[in-house]
Amino acid sequence: MAKIYIKNAEQIEGIRKASKLAAEVLDYVAPFVKPGVSTGELDKLCHEFITDHGAVPAPLNYCPPGYTPYPKATCISLNDVVCHGIPNFNKLLKKGDTLNIDITVIKDGYYGDTSRMYFAGEPSIMAKRLSKITYECMWLGINEVKPGAHFGDIGYVIQQYAEDAGYSVVREFCGHGVGIEFHEEPQVLHYGRRNTMDELKPGMIFTIEPMINAGGKAIRSMPDGWTIRTKDRSLSAQWEHTILVTDTGYEVLTVSPDMPSPPHFIRNNH
Ligand code: MF3
Ligand code: CO
Ligand code: CO
């Protein structure tokens, strides 16, 4: 049994504030995403917004065992980059590029973690469909969240939906408990079987952040020690929210004025 933190009211309020700020960063950066801008510039804009709001970017110098310190404030993952793309002033967005911007902030000691997909100019029909299906995967996972459900239920619905669409689920990276630390237990797998893994309890806070590939599930790591790409160079997409388990269902903590609405098939009576 994993040691999953149950957060108290004060901790929940702190994590709620950090999560909102992380989502507001994603709102703020949206109008700057267009062909010709560098991912380094987008990172700089996010970094400044975060510090201007009395917070710290959690990725900067983050150094899990076996890694080198992460050099930037955000992760920006283009096209076939699955996750942990390192922003770079020499990497200019091209028309039709798809990208995930992933923001984790530390505000008053608490963490909030969220990411969205963006397009530089008009994307291909294929890229749009991959992003949409991935967004629906995330929300189908969120929709499972309530006391008594199991983490395996989340993975199950995500895997089913992605594979029915002809896509594959990345296995090496997963969602995670979050709030008091950056990456807490449990690992929230985006594949699996119903009624497996730990049971969800009120006060748990974790991310759901499926990485879905248009081609095969295999990945490869780049020599920079961070960047992950699809092995077959197919496109990859990801969306991420931080979720609180409530007494009756869930609360999405990473909310902001411009966040995309849930898909129509999601219940809102939690
Ligand atoms: N924000 C990522 C996540 O969703 C983690 C990024 S780790 C970093 O878990 F060091 F690359 F920033
Ligand atoms: Co993240
Ligand atoms: Co995360």
TrEMBL record:
Protein name, UniProt field: Methionine aminopeptidase
Keyword Protease: yes
Organism, as annotated: Oxalobacter aliiformigenes
Residues holding a divalent metal cation 2: D113, H176, E209, E240
Subunit structure: Monomer.
Function of the molecule: Removes the N-terminal methionine from nascent proteins. The N-terminal methionine is often cleaved when the second residue in the primary sequence is small and uncharged (Met-Ala-, Cys, Gly, Pro, Ser, Thr, or Val). Requires deformylation of the N(alpha)-formylated initiator methionine before it can be hydrolyzed.
Keyword terms of this UniProt record: Aminopeptidase, Hydrolase, Metal-binding, Protease
Entry EC number(s): 3.4.11.18
Chain residues that bind substrate: H84, H183
GO molecular function terms attached to this record: initiator methionyl aminopeptidase activity
Cofactor: Co(2+); Zn(2+); Mn(2+); Fe(2+)
Gene3D superfamilies: Creatinase/methionine aminopeptidase superfamily
InterPro entries, alphabetized: Creatinase/aminopeptidase-like, Pept_M24, Pept_M24_MAP, Pept_M24A_MAP1
Transmembrane segment boundaries: none
Catalytic activity: Release of N-terminal amino acids, preferentially methionine, from peptides and arylamides
Sequence positions that bind a divalent metal cation 1: D102, D113, E240
Note on cofactor: Binds 2 divalent metal cations per subunit. Has a high-affinity and a low affinity metal-binding site. The true nature of the physiological cofactor is under debate. The enzyme is active with cobalt, zinc, manganese or divalent iron ions. Most likely, methionine aminopeptidases function as mononuclear Fe(2+)-metalloproteases under physiological conditions, and the catalytically relevant metal-binding site has been assigned to the histidine-containing high-affinity site.
Classification via SUPFAM superfamilies: Creatinase/aminopeptidase
Statement: the UniProt record of this protein carries the keyword Protease: yes
Domain Peptidase M24: 13-247
Pfam families: Peptidase_M24
Top class in the EC scheme: hydrolase
Family listed: Belongs to the peptidase M24A family. Methionine aminopeptidase type 1 subfamily.
CDD domains in UniProt: MetAP1
